[in-house]
Amino acid sequence: MPYRAPLEDFRRILTDVVGYEQVSGTDLYAEAGMETVEAVLTEAGKMCEEVLAPLNRNGDLDPARLENGRMRTPRGFAEGYKAIAEGGWVAISAAPESGGMGLPMAVTTCVNDMMGSACLALQLNPLMTQGQIEALEHHASDELKALYLPKLVTGEWQGTMNLTEPQAGSDVGALSTRAEPLEDGTYAITGQKIYITWGDNDFTENVCHLVLARLPDAVPGTKGISLFLVPRNIPDADGNPGVANDLKVVSLEHKLGMHGSPTCVMQYDGARGWLVGKEGGGMRAMFTMMNNARLGVGVQGVAIAEAATQAALAYAQERRQGRTPEGTIIGHADVRRMLATMRADTFAARAIALAQAVAIDMGRATGEADWQARAALLTPITKAFGTDTGIAVADMGVQVHGGMGYIEETGAAQFLRDVRVTAIYEGTNGIQAMDLVGRKMMDGGEAAYRLLDEIEGFAETARGQMPELATRVWEAAESLRETTEALVATEVADRFAGAVPYLRGFARVLGGYFHLRAAMAQPEGGAARLARFYIERLLPEHTGLLVQARAGSDAVMQITADDLAA
Ligand SMILES: Cc1cc2nc3c(=O)[nH]c(=O)nc-3n(C[C@H](O)[C@H](O)[C@H](O)COP(=O)(O)OP(=O)(O)OC[C@H]3O[C@@H](n4cnc5c(N)ncnc54)[C@H](O)[C@@H]3O)c2cc1C
Fold first, then answer.
1. How far is CA 396 from CA 35, 393, 399, 400, 402, in A?
2. Of residues 251, 232, 250, the one with CA closest to residue 242
């Protein structure tokens, strides 16, 4: 079933739900009014429907491979990438001085959503570059910016991020790649990185690696890590990719899904690198890239949820089995329940991601700390809930297809295989939840309380028109507030044990709020019916989740490894 860009959903969420008009009301984004945004999204949607979506299956059946040390990407990917780059879709939010269009992150988020639905394995490539551009814009020297940014923004060159090593996964501080200072001010980078996404390709002139490494006298842990830009080909002064650097792709991983995206083991043998940011400031610089990438990865979950929902809906409207008024399985209550869950959760996850994007844009445009704190608070929720939703919705998509879901030809299984990794990379979802209850609560819960004030205030005004739905949302927000207060007052170990259910409970409440906003804007339409479904059937999950969140760590940690083996 062909992919259809959900332009109406974007329009509705931006205008009715997440307050995009605040963004276009700022001086910085004054030219990005809704009319412009809709025109941009229509154009991007066309490319996704017509060029990228037909490539998705190629990526699965004809995986990227290494032949005599050279990368071979799936059939059609080079042409697909060309369409992305020539359309200017690699980096529409990059600053105009870097050659970008300076459009808001909210617009990039919608474009990434569509590209991810159409062909996730290929979309992962520009997503890496987007993060690299942002890290360089914030932390690189003027010389590096001038040399690299124009090439990255046009997509002539591609970016990667190199953190992981065999002994340093979630614990990035354990990494041991070395950086030796050279006399000319550059560094010699030596070490091995694993799982490097799009570590090479056969369609861009150059590949630019951002590599975390340690200087010889660096302190142990994350404070001793610095960030280096290490190009595959060292550019000359005019920006032409010159001699090959001392690095190579050693091998590719064989994966559950995402076959079109090469996941590489990279070897650096004294490769020349340029420092980005300060010595010892690597994690700070890399966090710029990771926060961008976390929104991007959360949106990958939304993208697959969208694609899986569209495919399942089309199948359910054709498949005849049992008796229903419609004549097809969509008439069965359980199938309708699955499809409604898929659509309602896709909406909730997309609205959360776009609310984060709006907060990023407002933070940039106004410099206000409250917006920046809102963006930071929503980052782990977008990432974990977006990707968990992608997995759950793709799984339900298989179920709606019955036996055909298990057969590869329908594509339902590919969605599930491809999206599974999104809960693992960019910080596992467990690590995201710990970030939410740890670092993001270092303000004593202030950013969370401000958001809850907003939700409760809206629910109170909505009570007159939609008393039942608004009351449920208000009560859910209140119980999230109580749980947040309890968590802020407890030991970190107890918080961590309840972190995952807390994050999911938080996302459930946000979903209820955003559905209520959509329903209030269109009280008679499908949005209101979907909101009622979400608030009556899915929102109540928050109650059990928040009980778990408050339960402390005893019941978890008293279980011994022997108990588990029994
Ligand atoms: C397809 C793919 C692409 C990738 N792309 C990139 C890339 O481009 N660049 C890059 O640098 N890396 C990349 N990665 C690596 C990815 O980011 C790591 O796999 C991920 O961060 C987890 O690290 P790990 O695999 O070592 O798992 P581990 O850290 O060993 O984690 C195993 C389990 O333990 C849990 N855990 C670990 N530490 C803690 C803790 N302190 N508290 C609670 N639970 C904990 C984890 O949540 C997880 O459930 C990629 C991975 C894959 C599979």
1. 35, 5, 5, 6, 10
2. 232
| Ligand 1 neighbourhood includes 417 CB (under 6 angstroms) | no
Q: Is 253 designated active site?
A: no
Ligand 1 centroid–CA 490 distance in Å is 27
Which H or E run includes 107? helix 105-118
When pLDDT is averaged across residues 313-329 and rounded to a whole number, the result is 97
Q: Cα(18) to centroid of ligand 1, in Å?
A: 31
Single-letter residue type at 400: V
Average pLDDT over residues 20-41: 98
Tell me the whole-structure pTM to 2 decimals: 0.98
Matching residue, tokens 């782990």:
380
Amino acid at 122: L
426: left (phi over 0), alpha (psi -120 to 50) or beta: left
- Phi (first) and psi of residue 156, to 5 degrees: -65, -35
Rounded CA-CA distance 108/93 in Å is 6
User: Which residue's CA is minimally distant from atom 42 of ligand 1?
Assistant: 431
Residue 348 near residue 517, CB atoms below 8 Å? no
Dihedral sign computed on CA atoms, order 285, 291, 293, 294:
positive
Distance 425 CA to ligand 1 centre (A): 6
Is the beta carbon of 328 within 6 A of some atom in ligand 1?
no
For the CA of 168, the closest atom of ligand 1 is 26
| Catalytic residue (choose from 134, 306, 426, 456) | 426
Cβ of residue 543 lying under 6 Å from some atom of ligand 1: no
Angle formed by the axes of helices 412-420 and 120-139, nearest 10°: 30
- Does ligand 1 come within 6 angstroms of the Cβ of 492? no
Query: Does ligand 1 have an atom closer than 6 angstroms to the CB of 175?
Result: no
Ligand 1 atom at minimal distance to the Cα of residue 258: 1
Q: Whose CA is nearest to atom 16 of ligand 1?
A: 425
Name the amino acid, one letter, at 48: C
| Cα 475 to Cα 473: distance, rounded to the nearest angstrom | 5
Beta pairing partners, 264: 196, 252
Quick one: which of 476, 506, 504, 473 has its CA closest to 392?
504
Give the H or E element holding residue 197: strand 187-197
Output the CA 251–ligand 1 centroid distance in Å.
Answer: 19
pLDDT value at residue 292: 77
The dihedral formed by the CA atoms of 85, 88, 90 and 91, expressed in degrees to the nearest 10: 150
Ligand 1 site, residue 264, Cβ cutoff 6 A: no
Tens digit of each residue's pLDDT (9 = 90 or more) over 184-225: 999 999 999 999 999 999 999 999 999 999 999 999 999 999
